[in-house]
Amino acid sequence: MILVLIALGVGVVLAGVAITSRQPAAQIGKNACDDAAARWGAHAAAGCAEAILQSEADGVSYANAKTGELVRNFSIEGGTANVRLTRLDGSTPQPGDRELLMTAVATVGSMTATVQKRVSLANPVPLNIAADARLAEFAVFAGNSLTVETDSVIAPSPYSTEPDSLVPIKIGTGFSSAAALNIDGNAKLRRTALFTDNNASLAMDAALTDAKYYDGTRLPYTIPLIREKSPPEVATLPILSIVLPLLNGVTQTLTQGNYSALTIQNGAVVTLGQVGAKTVYKFTNITVESSGVLRFAGDVIVQASGATIVRTFGAIEPATADSRIEFYLGRNVTLTDCAIGLNRTIARDSSRAPKDAMNHPLADQVYLSTLNTADGGSAAPAWTINSRAMILASIYAPQSTLTIDGESALIGRAVCGAFTLRGRSQLLYDTRLDPRAGFTELAGPLYLDRLPIPPVTTYLGSVAPATGAEAYQTALKSTLDTYWSALSTPNLLVRPVAAAPAAWEDELIADDSAATVIVAASGTPSPRVQGKARFRTQAQRAEGYEN
Q1: How far is CA 438 from CA 133, 222, 441, 448, in A?
Q2: Of these four, 138, 372, 473, 503, which has the most CB atoms within 10 Å of its CB?
């Protein structure tokens, strides 16, 4: 009898469990269905937002006006979806922003799914920016040889206001021999893409597949390096043939003119230019040393036919955040134990380091270039950055040898003949300089269906070194204008929008990399985004939901 009672009790319990377990089955099934619909709805809403960003140049401006909201109450999969854009720090996006976070949220029934994507936009730019003769799209471009020794670094600048981009930084070569490319296995390359031009030998193609590079390809154009000509304003300067030995803390502002030499020593401070004005100077030589300071205000042009030396705690510093200076230099350049483009306090700190340039201004605030030989420039000047020098600048020195050594840092970019990075030094590229629309953008206006444009090929092969960089860029833009205006329906290949996961998310869901053709009205490409996607799902008001 006892056994019968026990068996009866167990039977009742099991029957009760079976009946109870079937009660939420319908809800579990509905939740599973709604969950799948919400996931696909969130991805679809993100895809819709991607298409908006790809085809509408003012998509970010629209989101800005709506406090970040790009898509609202979009009906999909039996539910609704919303998409919001923010800066990476979560604040409302501003017009012109390129690095954003996209969050798509879809709700179906009681289930909600969220897709977040890191996006890197390539905003439309004018053709004169796309046809950039000075190659600002490259972290470094070397025409003759490129060497990066052990423990030296090429990476995006982590100290700019655009520190984290999905777009790789670009190393470019204009030489043919694989022996001229020497990047040590212990060099530290972060998210770098290698590009060779049409000069490259077949042996160079093997380098493109090296695991140390994030991406890269052989470009179908031969890229010329054309030096700068003397600015026309220099020729009309009044001659002030005096030597300026400024010693012992003297402070002076120079009027524009043609001087024989400029020497700034022993803490002296010399200001060139004035806020809100454009001024022009010419010197035979420039020397800034022993804590001397060359300060620039407004828009300043400086030409020096002889050597340029900044050393021993010397500084070249901006007077205001929007001041800019362009140097056109004829002979050797030596920058050692100094700071350029940064405050004098950094120059005078022997332990200076790149982190001292946190949130630094755009690295073309100081532009350093070599003079064309037709205007008296040396055929092959030597440029040296050494002894923990910190240089915040854009260097455009075709046919020059540029050596960065002694734990120095160039924050900006460099174009040169022969490039050497050694001695634990760093080249930190300011990614804001990359227009994302130059020679390396096969989906951009320098190409048709990812192929070279014949008149562009012809012009690049015929441009003369004495032309000067500015005239070369103007002629290249004119060639592109003529070509694109002759096409009734110009097709530009633009990579579809994709995205990337946040650093803490491991699960990869999508990686959109195929190319598609969209019709554009001009030679300026639409915005595009690169990367991968992630998702997470949240159960809401779902009692008994089993994940």
Answers
A1: 10, 13, 5, 13
A2: 138
Name which of 228, 215, 277 is nearest 376 in CA terms: 228
Which residue reads 């001087």 in tokens?
Answer: 259
pLDDT digits (tens, 9 = 90+) for 456-492: 999 999 999 889 999 999 999 999 999 988 886 554 4
Q: For residues 292 and 210, what is the distance between their CA atoms, to the nearest angstrom?
A: 45
Contact (Cβ atoms closer than 8 angstroms) between residue 122 and residue 166? no
C-beta separation of 93 from 63 below 8 A: yes
Burial class (CB within 10 angstroms; exposed 0-12, middle 13-18, buried 19+) of 20: exposed
Q: What distances in angstroms separate CA 42 from CA 4, 106, 503, 508, one per listed residue?
A: 57, 5, 20, 15
The model's pTM is 0.84
Tokens of 312: 């021993």
- How many whole angstroms separate alpha carbon 10 and alpha carbon 327? 93
Is the pLDDT assigned to residue 271 strictly greater than 60? Answer: yes
Residue 514 CB burial class (10 angstroms; 0-12, 13-18, ≥19): exposed
| 102, 115, 208, 528 from 55: Cα distances, Å | 16, 21, 32, 8
Angle, to 10 degrees, between the axis of helix 454-462 and the axis of helix 469-485? 160
Structure tokens at 91: 């604040």
Angle at 330 between CA 327 and CA 333, to 5 degrees: 75
Report, in this order, helix, strand and coil percent for the chain, each rounded to 5: 20, 40, 40
User: What tokens were used for 361?
Assistant: 């201004």
Coil vs helix vs strand at 465: helix
pLDDT category at 124 given cuts 50, 70, 90 is confident
- The residue to which tokens 């004169």 are assigned: 128
DSSP code at position 182: E
